[in-house]
Amino acid sequence: MRFVSVSKAGLPDSARAEKARSIGLKGTVTRSLRDGSVEIYHADGSVLRKQAGASHFVLTSPDGKRRRVPASSPAQEEDKHHHHSAGARHGKGGHDEEASPSIEELLPVEVHAETDPETSSRVLTLVDEDIGGGRTVVVFYPDGARMALFRDGTSIRTDPTKGHVLVESPGFPSLYLDLAVDLTARKHARGEKVWRGLCMAC
User: In Å, how far from its chain's centre is CA 150?
Assistant: First the structure.
């Protein structure tokens, strides 16, 4: 789904800075900014940023690690992000980042970790000085839910079952995604065979 800013009246500065934004699979938010840069926000709190004219994205993970990865389309970057994450989780069985010459490790950003005494939620705060101190906050709730809050005010909330995502941002409508239905709809739109139980029109 794509949002295009038509009127600037009443919009917050963060929304005015955008030329367009799209919501992809699993609630991934892609911001195309008027200065030519691109920011991609993921539900796990990871951020991909590309400066105008650059040939690479900088991937910042919730643990503070930063990597430089080749630029491609936002959809490809989304797939690439999930591929990198799988490699990090599975070690040798996943993506071997050290063997890939296209990935460059960068200096990490500082991560502040704390536990909320009232809710027992774990809170990670990352401050990226390369973008003027832009802040990302990731909250892990005791029931398994998670919320990622990004520097422009965008939040991506994932429920405990990891089956539903709520995307909210100042100046834009909220979007609630049933991930199973969303994936089925995308496959159907591409002409792929889908399970009839999730496709009323098949």
Answer: 9
Sort strands 66-70 and 104-106 into parallel, antiparallel or unpaired. Answer: antiparallel
Q: Are 112 and 46 in contact (CB under 8 A)?
A: no
Residue 53, phi-psi category: left (phi > 0), alpha (psi -120 to 50), beta (remainder): left
Please say whether the dihedral angle defined by the alpha carbons of residues 141, 22, 18 and 71, taken in this order, is positive or negative.
positive
Sign of CA dihedral 171, 172, 173, 176: negative
**For residues 156 and 149, what is the distance between their CA atoms, to the nearest angstrom?**
7
pLDDT, tens digit (0-9, with 9 covering 90-100), for 26-38: 899 999 999 999 9
Whether the Cβ atoms of residue 122 and residue 113 lie closer than 8 Å to each other: yes
Tokens of 24: 């992809």
What does the buried/exposed string (b/e) look like for 53-91 if buried means 16 or more CB atoms within 10 Å of the residue's CB?
eeebbbbbbbebbbbbbebeebeebbebbbebbebeeee
Please tell me the pTM assigned to this model: 0.76
